[in-house]
Amino acid sequence: VQLQESGGGSVQSGGSLKLSCAASGDTRCMAWFRQAPGKEREVVADMRMDGSSTYTDSVKGRFTISRGPGILYLQMNSLKLEDTAMYSCAADWRSTALCYAAEGYTYWGQGTQVTVSS
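Above: the chain sequence. Below: its structure as tokens.
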């Protein structure tokens, strides 16, 4: 499965961005990760093939993950300075119970930078 992200950029605090991840195939688990300089990579949100999803606490109520055939989205509203990071999408055929686990995703995109300024 090949993944390609788009939609990153620079935005002021409080603004919005929508990330897209084009996938060459569909998998049971798809997720958005992010990594800020000097920090560990973290799962932002995942969405399973059945449509269920999980969010990390810091983005709940602000970010929305969605998916369709061959595409994964992340709508990001009310962006904060601390949302600045490289965002990557990932996909895997693991059990849905493990979709939110950060380790072991098989397929990765190249990433797209999101920069939030004051």
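The radius of gyration is 13 Å.
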